[in-house]
Write a structure and sequence with these properties.
- With 174 residues, this protein is α+β, with helices and mostly antiparallel strands.
- It has a domain of 119 residues: 2-Layer Sandwich (Killer Toxin P4, Chain A), CATH 3.30.430.
- The chain contains four helices and five strands; from the N terminus they run αβαββαββα.
- It has a five-stranded antiparallel beta sheet with strand order 1-4-5-3-2.
- Strand 2 and strand 3 form a beta hairpin.
- Helix 2 runs antiparallel to helix 3.
- The longest helix has 22 residues.
- The termini are far apart.
- About 3% of the residues have low confidence.
C-alpha cells in the first residue's frame, strides 16, 4: 500500500470495505426467506378418528414438498370424495429451486406447530406461500388476511417511508 502522503492511499482500503458491504445483503437474503409474514388457520379442527384425513394431508404435503425442488408454483389434490384435500405452494421468483424447496419444507412443520391440524390453513414466509383446504367446508375469501405476524426486528423507518410515498404522490398529482 502507498504512504499516507499519496492522495490515493485509501483507495484499496475503500474498495475492500465497499466489497464487504456489497456481499452482506446477499448472504442475508436466503435466511430472510424463512421469516413468517402471516398465517391463516381455520377455527374448525380436522376431526379424524380413523386417520384418513391425516394420511391424505401427509400425502399432500409430501407431494408439494417434492414438487418445490422442480417448480416455483404447484397445485394438487389428494384423496377422494369427502376426504379430498386441495393444496398449493408458490415461491418467490428470485429463489433458486434449492431455496424454494427449503422454504416449502418448513411450511408443514410451522402450520402444524402454529395452527394444529385445522380443516384449512395458509401460511406465508418471505420466500414462499402454502395453502391447503379440505373439500366441502365454507372458506374465508382468499383476499382477506386472517392473521398477521409482525417482526419486531425491522420496525424502523415507517415515518421515512410514509413521507417518501406521500411526497411521491404529491409530485405525481401536481
Amino acid at each position: 500500500m502507498s504512504s499516507p502522503g499519496n492522495p490515493f492511499w485509501f483507495l484499496p482500503l475503500f474498495l475492500v470495505i465497499l466489497t464487504i458491504f456489497q456481499l452482506i445483503p446477499l448472504s442475508k437474503s436466503a435466511a430472510d426467506s424463512n421469516s413468517i409474514v402471516y398465517k391463516g388457520c381455520a377455527k374448525q379442527a380436522l376431526s379424524d378418528p380413523s386417520g384418513v384425513y391425516s394420511q391424505a394431508l401427509s400425502s399432500l404435503f409430501g407431494t408439494l414438498i417434492a414438487q418445490s425442488s422442480k417448480a416455483k408454483f404447484f397445485k394438487t389434490t389428494t384423496g377422494s370424495g369427502q376426504t379430498t384435500i386441495t393444496g398449493l405452494f408458490q415461491c418467490r421468483g428470485d429463489l433458486s429451486n434449492v431455496d424454494c424447496y427449503t422454504c416449502v419444507s418448513r411450511l408443514p412443520i410451522l402450520i402444524d406447530k402454529l395452527c394444529g391440524r385445522p380443516i384449512a390453513a395458509r401460511m406465508q414466509l418471505l420466500g414462499c406461500y402454502m395453502l391447503y383446504e379440505v373439500a366441502g367446508f365454507a372458506q374465508i375469501s382468499g383476499m382477506e388476511m386472517l392473521y398477521k405476524s409482525c417482526s419486531g426486528t425491522n420496525v424502523g423507518g415507517l415515518d421515512l417511508r410514509r413521507g417518501e410515498i406521500l411526497l411521491y404522490l404529491h409530485l405525481k398529482m401536481a
